[in-house]
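Quality-control log, excerpt.
Job 1 of 2 completed; input and output follow.
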Amino acid sequence: MQPLPPNAPSRIGDYTLLAALGRGAMGSVYLARSRGGRPIAVKVARAELADNPPFRERFRREVEMARAVGGFWTATVVDADPDAERPWMATEYIPGPSLQQVVQDHGPLPERAVRRLAGGLAEALVAIHGAGLIHRDLKPSNVLLADDGPRVIDFGIARALEHSALTEAGIVFGTPGYLSPEQVIGQQITTQSDVFALGSVLVYAATGGGPFGEGATSALVYRVVHQEPDLSRVPPGLVPLIVPCLVREPANRPTPARLLEAIGPPSNDPSWLPERVRTMVEQRHTELGRLPAKPPTRVMVDDPPPRTPTLVAPTPAPTPSAPTPPAAPVRITPEPKDVRPTGVRFKTSRVVGSSWAGANALAAVVTASIADPAAGAPGAVRLAAFVAFLAFAVAAIRLLVGVARSPLTLDVGPDGITLSNGTENRRLPWYAIARVKVDAHHARPWLVVWLVPAAKTPDTLGRGSFTRHKGGLRVYPISHERYRKRRDRDVVELRSALAWYGSAAYDPR
């Protein structure tokens, strides 16, 4: 809970703002009080969302559905205005910390608390799904821990945010590590996607970490799709409850109702939280009681008029500025030798190529000895051995030529794509890239980019980099020298990195 920022309004609708609670994917969240004195959490849309008419329509529809959500374990929607200058939604305020904050401050929850948490979350999903909603972003920060049980927040927002101005601008909706496999690869999302997220949240509550570890986003989403969850630190009594939730095939996951049956009735102990967490909840109640009925008077020129519940502060008078110089053409220049790696790194290998070259050279020696007339082999055998010798010798030579070339390193990060051969670097910033894709042609996949018209084509760094291809440029050979399984894995990881860091230019086809 923080003081209101200087540009925050004093009221939204019929609610007096008291403090700032945070910011999320939708926008700002404030603690407010109703006319009758009830504490309320008010979520206000970002300005860029407010200017998107399709978002307003989706927001209106999802708010109406969220109002229909009942049950004990959700934050009730009490009011909303989709037609406001910036749309907002008011929900019941839960004076409790988030699961994420509790685990970060005090470590994992005991088994009995995780079981009670599972029951509350499963019952919340029954109510949410019963209203025709899918949460889509269930995660530790969206679970609040109250003294009588958990509460799920931010349902009704997920669907409205999809395909909004934010996501179209490159912000991926959802939280890596808690997204289901079908969400990662773009398949149809069902209520069972929330069950997968529920299993991941329970692992976090029981161990302090997600089931797919930590690291770069591309690594997390790759593990979700291709690797098994790590449940080695989960208490044995919780494993049979969590494992079915994390099954890759959605149809094989239990429904929330079936999970409630598996969990069984809750214990009779009303103190479900550890003492240190109960203290945090009590502190929230104390803070709430100390808040004034209305915020202190703020003397600021940008306060909105009291009669207008708007979120847009008056625009300050413009100040003189120097003329803006004409934009220079986009140029891609060599970078310094030492470039700090960002995002995800890929590298061609000399070791693997050398190993294969050695294996082919050995095979060529063996077949040459068989083809030698002095070996006394039949003519047909010697002919076949000679043909095999030629094939192995050509393969060994090609591999040795590849090994002799300088290895390439590719970094994909928030600033763009950087290619290095150990002595020189070429950086392609995202603003210079019109389109980028992985051209997965059989055993020789390439990273291919199409530059904006003003961009200058970089000089090659060897291994065929920056050569013309289908109107674009081949940039990086993706694991040509490696075996198929490793090559396919690198292709998947590179596509994930491009989708995350350069989604505005990434072409998944």
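Job 2 of 2 completed; input and output follow.
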Amino acid sequence: MKMPPDMPGQGAMQEPGPALSGAALDRLMPMHLWIGASGEVIRAGPTLQRLAGAPLALRAWTEIVTLRRPRATRRLEELLQMQGGALKFTLNSRPEIALKGLVVTLPGGAAFVNLSLGISLVDAVGRFDLTSSDFAPTDLAIELLYLNEAKTAVVGELRRLALRLNGARLTAEVEAATDMLTGLANRRALDDALGRLSASSLPFALMQLDLDLFKAVNDNHGHGMGDAVLRMVAAVLRSHFRSRDVIARVGGDEFVVLMVDFVDRDHLLSHASRLIERIEQPMEFQGVDCRISASIGIAVATLARRPSCDVLLQEADIALYESKRRGRGRATFYDDWQRRRHGPGDTAF
């Protein structure tokens, strides 16, 4: 093998034979090391330099690679004695990368070491973004690269498909539990949450709200205005209650709120009063102001009293219509309605 004319230091190690250009040598053996008799590297393959992260010419071979098997050595003479045998190296700048090698003796005590990636192939390809151009065309690594790329493509597509399917499933689940006009929970979501709360030991209040004078909005201004008002009421409810509370639209202008661990009567009445006051403020849509109000019925589940879901909804509904019967724009507890049926007393406002 004749030294390529673009290599430094040719002449002393040149021998008769066909010339091999540096470009051809790099293509045939892109991970070679040409080591002079002094132990300095004359030429290194482009892929090896890419892995090392720096030019390798004129550096001692022992600064670049470490021979591990069949025995460790830092002497070029001992390396040459291992000619023809399978050698195991590691790259000093990347000691985790294992290399396989074969050494050939050149005239004048020089050496030519051809290296390849062993079990580090897949890791090196991923870390250094290696492609088929970084390997000899006859290298088995090319086949492995194709297999790995095919596997990566298939796994990536399966992952994307799984994400799309999972996203579609989650979207469907959210939509199935969401009122599409207001974005609040719907009756199905409310029933699920109410069932879980009833089965737990947590106290909670069920507040049922119905808009007063809403029919007049639809009659006088059309359903576009009515839908806008419902969305504005939904926004008021979101800002008024805690994130842990469940707010649902269960009918045209009817809403239900589950207030977890919030059953103090004074606090509930104050909360309902502020909510009604906020809803009674003028709501503007396309330059038109409209005024509505709200009536509220409240039923409470405590540790001592755990009525069924249906009973709680019925109690809140009875209390709601008691609020409407007594003038609207107010809140009534179910147990207050019960007491009024049997005697004086009125705690609604």
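Post-run check on job 2. Confidence is low (pLDDT under 50) at residues 5-17, 345-349.
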